[in-house]
Amino acid sequence: MALKTEPFVLNIGPLHPSTHGVFRLLATLDGEVVIDIEPIIGYLHRGIEKLAEEREYQKDIPLCDRLDYVAAMSHSMAYVMAVEKLLGISVPERAEYIRVIMVELQRIASHLLAVGSIANEIGTFFTPFMYMFRERERILDLFDMVCGQRLLYNYMRFGGVSHDLPEEFIPALAKFINQMPGYIDEYDQLLAENEILLVRTKGIGVLPPELAINCSVSGPTLRASGVARDIRRCDPYSIYDRFEFDIPTRTAGDCYDRYRQRIEEMRQSLRIIRQAVEQLPQGKVNSQVPIRVRPPQGDVFVHVEAPRGELGFYLVSDGSEKPYRFHIRAPSLINLTPLREMIIGWKLADAIVIFGSIDIIMGEIDR
Amino acid sequence: MQALSFDEIAGLISAKYAPEMVAPSQGSLVVGGEHLLEVASYLRGTPELDFDYLISVTAVDYRGHFEIVYHLTSLQHSHSLVLKVRCPQDKPVMPSVVSLWRGADLQEREVFDLMGVSFAGHPNLKRLFLWDGFKGYPLRKDYSSGT
């Protein structure tokens, strides 16, 4: 006799360790299997777009740090690039190199957090996570050296960066980029063929490339599904066209590939940083833009490859000191579009891994 | 695979549609709201254009009318295009493009939530960040955050 079952609704979050912030998921379950989900967001909505429109341009740089608070360098760089495009100003060579070094270090720090979290979700409670935090800490120390902050840097400025690198920075960075490949090998020894990880991630939560493209998914989540779209290559900005690096992709689009994708991207970021350090020119780090700017009327859209995907700023200037419109194209939000298809049909414990493998940050989802 | 310049794309569009339906202006295409779905399907479905990836949807309040801004790109040809659609403030309703690009789903809900523009044909149009009882649309220019 077949067992009679009834679906029931399980509320996960908004405050739950598996949700990476205040994300709430209403899951309808049949036994252990998820048959429907409803994501509920907005608990961290601070109205950053409105706040930014009510402030002068330069006061929005620290607000941008607070969007994706584990990749603040990437966000503030994208914003200052958008304002520089509105103003029509250029950035000194040395500042461009420093920016690239910072955002690629940021990508490694962010991917370390992502991979550590995926491992956590699988149930390897905090062991891999702490290995990765060991190296992430080194990167935060480097950021601390250049701007005195570990999380929210306020380092980018219109026309450059706030300070030149301190004397001790380059030796410390060189030591880090020499040691980091060995650490990545160590993560692979621990995880790449770990049986628990394979069982819990291979073939789970597949995102087909057609669905990913249709849902405007970007970043490592898109590339793990086999689509080689990376803004650094398809619409090069800053000085990315001067470096040799690959755009790795995967084929299966499952949780395992989303984890592997980030490991490969860390190696590529190290390649870029190595070249940037070798080519780093002397000179000014800021082109002395006045603190208060009044860009001419017009609109711009600038997009960059942030650690979580395609981050865009759409700014409209009416010629005043404040942006008339300030919109953020947030990769974390848009990458949630296919979440339903990815999760439905899997068990609840898999749903947590699938959700974690997309790697979202609530600060840029809710804004 | 061949990237087209903006002028070439605008040329293809002008050959097909009358200027009151869609017209190039300062590097973007200005489309009439009632023609948006038709023009968008053409942009997505024509092989030499093949705009298969919707980067961004957002809206600007120009005091009197809204402008809905779409950033499109083609992964195959790697050319991009900006569409701008004017939307009257007294009747803020636009056709939804979710049937063409699902990537518009959450972004149209965001515009609906914060700017108060409705999208006809959206499969699940409800507030995204704010709660159901929230009064007003914070990104409109007549709304002050009080800070």
Overview of this protein structure:
The complex is a heterodimer of chains A (367) and B (147). Chain A contains 15 helices and eight strands. Chain A has helices at 48-53, 60-65, 72-87, 93-122, 127-147, 169-191, 195-201, 209-214, 220-223, 231-234, 255-279, 331-334, 339-343, 348-358, 362-366, and strands spanning 8-12, 24-30, 33-40, 156-157, 160-161, 298-306, 309-317, 325-329. In chain A, the strands form three sheets. In chain A, strands 1-2-3 form a three-stranded antiparallel β-sheet, with no helix packed on it. Chain A has a three-stranded antiparallel β-sheet with strand order 6-7-8. A two-stranded antiparallel sheet of chain A has the order 4-5. The radius of gyration of chain A is 21 Å and the shape is globular. The relative contact order of chain A is 0.19. Chain B has three helices and seven strands. Chain B has helices at 6-16, 36-45, 104-115, and strands at 22-25, 28-31, 53-61, 65-73, 80-88, 93-95, 118-120. Chain B starts with 5 loop residues before the first helix and ends in a 27-residue tail after the last strand. The model of chain B has no long low-confidence stretch (mean pLDDT 89). Chains A and B meet through helix 1, helix 8, strand 6, strand 7 and strand 8 of A and strand 3 and helix 3 of B.
